[in-house]
Structure formats: structure tokens, C-alpha cells
Fold this sequence. Notes:
Blueprint: E1 40-50, E2 53-62, E3 67-74, H1 79-93, E4 100-103, H2 112-120, E5 124-127
Parallel strand pairs: 1-4, 4-5
Antiparallel strand pairs: 1-2, 2-3
Amino acid sequence: MNLPKMSTTKPNFLYAKLKVSLACPNHLNQQFNPTKPNPVWTSDISYIPVNNGFVYLCVILDLYSRKVIAWKVRTRITTSLVLDRLQTASDKCKPAQLLLFHTDRGTQYTSSEIRQFLDHHSLTYSYSKKGYPWDNAVT
């Protein structure tokens, strides 16, 4: 019947290369005890179960005092939630140029909008190692 031979091997998938660099340096390296206020901020988003699903709490902490300097609860987990809190924290604390902003590698924190905000305000970003929650345990 002249049928072609059937292949039993899985084809290779060629992943598209990203146009934006996703370099995620960990500048904090679990040094959780800064010697003065406002050199390091940490942030994370917590899922809080409610009757019909979840709400999301975004907090930003000053690592020196362990005080919450900005927080917000929303029904959607978006980059704007983090961006809004960063703007509030910046307006409230007027951070120095050497501020380090440390988070996990959530898509909200690695987005181009967050990186643009940090670059515009001359803040340094730092990310936990992939799959290693202890790097952001203080938050």
C-alpha cells in the first residue's frame, strides 16, 4: 500500500527565546539583619481563603524593623497590586538610592512593569532562588 513508516519518537519542541532578560540575582543571600532602616525591603503575596475563593494580600516589609510599610488586599492577583504597594511604600518612606527590593520569583514581581519602576527609582531588585522559599522566609 506504500504507506510511510510511522515514527515512534517524540518530536523536539523548539522553545521561543524570550526578548526580555529574566536574570534573577539573589543579592540578599539570606542576610536578614540589616544594620539600619530602609536598606532592604521584602515583599510577598499571601492567599487568604474566603467563602467563594481567595483574596490576595500583598505586603512590603522593612527588613530592619520588620514593620509592614505597605499592604493591600484585593480579589485579583495582578502586577498592579504590587506596583500600587511599591508606589505607596516609596512615597511614604522616601528610600535611599541603595535600597534592595527582595521577593520571590512570582510573575507579579518579575514583570517588566515592576522592573521599570525599580529602574526608574534606582532601586536594586533581588530574587529568591527558584523553588527555595527560605530565601524569602522573613516575609
